[in-house]
Write a structure and sequence with these properties.
Blueprint lengths: L6 E6 L2 H11 L4 E4 L3 E6 L2 E7 L12 E5 L2 E5 L1 E2 L2 E2 L1 H12 L7 E6 L7 E7 L5 E7 L2 H4 L4
Parallel strand pairs: 1-4, 7-11, 8-11
Antiparallel strand pairs: 2-3, 3-4, 5-6, 9-10, 10-11
Length: about 140
């Protein structure tokens, strides 16, 4: 499976706060930037944060919750599908700076087709992120 990088632009309440979260804490390399936006390399994909000053210093972007497996899954959300070892390492890393997961890291569909690790958390502006992993991404990502 050959994938091409996606480009995703999101709003944040403060550029320096986003630089700290995505750049320093998450460890995503920074690309081009101005006073109002920053490009980050998110596992080979282009994540761009744009400052929305209307959110204010304590503001959050809006999200809805959709019931999935007894959890309130935030919509919208975004993230990357990783190999299991990368997913476990990321889960341990973010536990060091995430105050509370939206959904703690766990395994869904254990022992079934599509078994996956998943976790949800939010950035300081309220953007919801999901990172997941499959044992065999190519055969399981879209398996029924």
């Amino acid at each position: 499976m050959t994938l091409t990088p996606f480009h995703l632009a999101i709003q944040v309440r403060d550029i320096e706060e986003a630089r700290d979260f995505y750049g320093k804490k998450m460890g995503f390399p920074e690309g081009r930037s101005t006073a109002d936006w920053i490009d980050f390399n998110m596992f080979g994909h282009q994540l761009v944060v744009h400052c929305n000053k209307e959110l204010g210093p304590e503001g959050k972007v809006n999200a809805l919750n959709n019931a999935v497996d007894g959890h309130g899954v935030p919509v919208p959300h975004f993230g990357v599908v990783l190999e299991f070892d990368e997913w476990h390492a990321l889960a341990e890393k973010v536990k060091g700076f995430i105050d509370g997961f939206i959904i703690e890291p766990y395994i869904r569909f254990e022992g079934e087709v599509g078994e996956q690790g998943t976790m949800f958390f939010a950035d300081p502006s309220g953007n919801s992120l999901e990172f997941k992993a499959f044992k065999n991404i190519e055969s399981e990502l879209f398996a029924k």
